[in-house]
């Protein structure tokens, strides 16, 4: 592809789609490369209850479909591919995708989001989809009447544990400290739920599949004395945080020690002129759909003004 786009959006989620809506309405004819998980993390979320304008709540995947429709209505071109290489050393910037297409663009909006972290246990990856999951809303349904363990102490851990009680007969929340980091309302929901039991000061240190290739138990190790015990389990859910999907830009853009892209204070601009970042790839603090959408809007407005400035010279 030799024609140079005005702006290219890498990644689709609340940030990417909002950037696309604003960029399209500003006649920037944005092209979006949807990435590994079109729609982002919200496609693996059940009900979104805290996004303004949806008083009864909305399912995450449905919400992302609506975002996409709105972006396409104003002329965004969505390409279902994954960016595999970028060249930010000169303008126009170049992005190569996994289907060997090459896109050139005067500006770039990075909204590649973040992905769930895993514990790194030897059996964990092997048992993924066979009882080990990082998404209760995708997989909870398969655990009707079962006993499951959730690892984590933040909002998402409490949310996953609560959600799983709709299906599982018993949910153990494994917390390595003696307190939860979750917001008060989420803590209360988990602590008040009769199906949830919190195991304080414990780590999950192994997961077993004694029978036909699916989870049958986990090993718990106390954080104090290191005492280990094996307990039967049908499922293990991980809710221990996220890693930004920014490996593609390592060594090219300024990042913090966790790999989040650093933007200028109060802005979406990165250390490279013409490259902007929005959403969970640059926000380790709020990590909400509504703040991601807001930062996508900021990025698009900054792109529009930056491009105007380029043409003025």
Offer a concise description of the structure.
This protein is of the alpha/beta class and about 325 residues long. The protein has helices at about 15-25, 60-75, 135-140, 155-165, 185-190, 290-310; strands spanning about 5-10, 30-35, 45-50, 60, 75-80, 85, 95, 100-110, 115, 130-135, 145-150, 170-175, 195-200, 200-210, 215-220, 230, 235-240, 240-245, 275.
Description:
- There is one protein chain.
- Strands 1, 2, 5, 6, 7, 8 and 19 form a 7-stranded mixed beta sheet that branches.
- The chain is α/β, with parallel strands linked by helices.
- The protein has 6 helices and 19 strands.
- α1 packs parallel to α2, α1 runs parallel beside α6 and α4 runs parallel beside α5.
- The protein is elongated.
| Overall geometry | elongated
- Per DSSP E runs of 2 or more residues, the count of β-strands stands at 19
Distance between the termini: 27 Å
Summed over residues and divided by their number, the pLDDT gives a mean of: 93
Query: How helical, in percent, are the residues?
Result: 10-25%
- Helical stretch tally: 6
Order of helices and strands: EHEEEHEEEEEEHEHEHEEEEEEEH
Low-confidence stretches: none
| Biggest sheet statistics | 7 strands, mixed
The percentage of residues in β strands lies in 25-35%
Structural class: alpha/beta
Alpha-carbon Rg, integer: 21 Å
């Amino acid at each position: 592809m030799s024609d140079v786009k005005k702006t290219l959006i890498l990644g689709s989620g609340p940030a990417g789609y909002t950037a696309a809506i604003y960029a399209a309405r500003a006649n920037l004819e944005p092209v979006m490369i949807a990435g590994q998980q079109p729609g982002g993390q919200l496609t693996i979320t059940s009900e979104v209850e805290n996004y303004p304008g949806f008083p009864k709540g909305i399912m995450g995947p449905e919400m992302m479909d609506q975002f996409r429709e709105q972006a396409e209505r104003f002329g965004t071109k969505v390409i279902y591919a994954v960016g595999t290489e970028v060249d930010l050393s000169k303008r126009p910037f170049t992005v190569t995708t996994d289907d060997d297409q090459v896109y050139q663009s005067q500006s770039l909006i990075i909204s590649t989001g973040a992905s769930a972290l895993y514990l790194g246990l030897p059996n964990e990856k092997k048992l993924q989809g066979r009882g080990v999951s990082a998404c209760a809303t995708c997989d909870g349904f398969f655990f009707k009447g079962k006993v499951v363990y959730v690892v984590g102490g933040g909002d998402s851990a409490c949310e996953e544990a609560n959600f799983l009680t709709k299906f599982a007969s018993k949910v153990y929340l494994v917390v390595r400290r003696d307190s939860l980091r979750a917001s008060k309302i989420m803590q209360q929901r988990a602590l008040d739920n009769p199906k949830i039991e919190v195991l304080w000061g414990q780590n999950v240190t192994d997961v077993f599949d004694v029978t036909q290739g699916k989870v049958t138990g986990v090993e718990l190790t106390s954080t104090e004395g290191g005492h280990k015990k094996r307990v039967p389990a049908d499922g293990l859910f991980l809710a221990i945080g996220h890693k930004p999907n920014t490996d593609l830009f390592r060594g090219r853009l300024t990042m913090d020690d966790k790999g989040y892209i650093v933007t200028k204070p109060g802005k979406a601009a990165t250390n490279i002129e013409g490259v902007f970042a929005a959403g969970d790839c640059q926000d380790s603090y709020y990590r909400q759909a509504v703040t991601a959408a807001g930062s996508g809007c900021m990025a698009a407005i900054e792109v529009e003004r930056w491009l105007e400035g380029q043409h003025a010279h």
